[in-house]
Structure formats: C-alpha cells, structure tokens
Amino acid sequence: MEPKTQTGYLLLADISGFTSFVAQTEIDHAHLALSFLLETIMEKISSLLIIFQLEGDAVFAYLEERQLQEGQSLLELIDQTYLAFREKALALYSQATCPCKACRALPTLDLKFLVHHQAIANSKLRSISLPQRIVTTRSPSIWSLLKIRNCSQN
Ligand SMILES: [Zn+2]
After folding, report:
1. For position 114, what pLDDT does the model report?
2. pLDDT at position 111, please?
3. d(CA 83, ligand 1 centre) in Å
4. Ligand 1 centroid to 100 CA: how many Å?
5. What values do phi and psi take at 135, rounded to 5?
6. What is the mean pLDDT of each run of 10 residues along the chain (154 residues)?
7. What is the CATH number of the domain that holds 107?
8. What's residue 48's pLDDT?
9. Can you list the alpha helix ranges (DSSP code H) found in the chain?
10. Is residue 74 part of a domain?
11. Which is it for strands 5-16 and 50-55: parallel, antiparallel or unpaired?
12. Is 81 part of a structural domain of the chain?
C-alpha cells in the first residue's frame, strides 16, 4: 500500500528586515522591490524544489527525499539563491534614482533560510504556479502544517 506521507525537505526562505522595511518606508517602492526580490528567490528555488506557499516576505518549498540525489545540491542551491538575492537587492539599490526610504533601505534587507527534514504530507502541499504566487496574507495555518516553530519573525 502506498504511504500517504513521504520523507523530504521543507525549505523556508525569509527576507529579514521586511516588516520594518514596509512599516517605515514608502509602501509603493517597498512592495515593488519586494516583488522583484521574491521573484528572484522563487526562480532559483524552483529549479530544484516545489514552491507551495508564499506569505508576505517568505517562500515555502519542499522536495521529496527520493528526488534529491545529493544533499550538497540543496546547500548549493541555498548559496546560489542567497547570492542572487543580494545581487538583486544591490542592483535595485544602484538603479534607484529615487531618494525614498524604501529605495535607500534596500541594502539592509537580508535573507535567511530554514531547512527541515521531515515527513511531508504531499496531499496538503500543492504547487502554486508562478504568476499567481503573490499572496500577502499571513495565515498561521502554514506553521502548524509544517510543524516548524521559532522560525517566524517576532
Ligand atoms: Zn523609492
């Protein structure tokens, strides 16, 4: 009988500093910059993992264990994603002609990752398609689904 859950990796990529970035800066430019940065992160992550949730400043993805041939690939992907994120943030900063707080604060944004090896209930994780990914609600349900604690921003 086919088991309902698989073992795999859950990955969270979370933009640090986002909450104060949005709260204290010009909202239009903050959201525009954020959408570019999230797009960059998702492009990289989706080359190996399946993205199933986007919440504000965080991208959630998973990968079944059997689909990962070498653990090193996952670490390399995280490195590459981080570099792409930093490059994008700095590129946006250097291209910005606007003196608003959001544009000036771009280099202060950072990206953190959390990877958790665990059982994954595939039926609950549906891949989301790229153009419709921008969802800004922050529901607590995802945390209980992932059973990950202490990794959200306080
Ligand atoms: Zn600006």
Report:
1. 94
2. 95
3. 23
4. 4
5. -125, 125
6. 72 85 72 90 94 89 90 93 96 88 88 90 57 37 37 36
7. 3.30.70.1230
8. 94
9. 18-24, 27-45, 71-95, 101-105, 141-146
10. yes
11. unpaired
12. yes
Tokens of 5: 């859950």
Say how many domains are in the chain. 1
- Residues, CB within 5 angstroms of ligand 1 (ion): 29, 98, 100, 102-103
CA of 31 to the centre of ligand 1 (A): 10
* Dist. CA 151 → ligand 1 center (Å): 30
**Residue 152 lies inside a defined structural domain of this protein:** no
User: Residue 128 Cα, ligand 1 centroid: separation in angstroms?
Assistant: 30
Q: With CA atoms as reference, report the closest residue to 63 among 40, 46, 44.
A: 46
The answer to whether 36 touches 84, Cβ cutoff 8 Å, is no
**What does pTM read for this prediction?**
0.76
Domain assignment of residue 96, given as a range: 5-146
Q: How far is the CA of 35 from the centre of ligand 1 (A)?
A: 14
Q: Give the pLDDT score at 25.
A: 60
Q: Which two tokens stand for residue 152?
A: 């959200």
pLDDT of 109 reads 92
Q: Please report the pLDDT score of residue 2 as a whole number.
A: 52
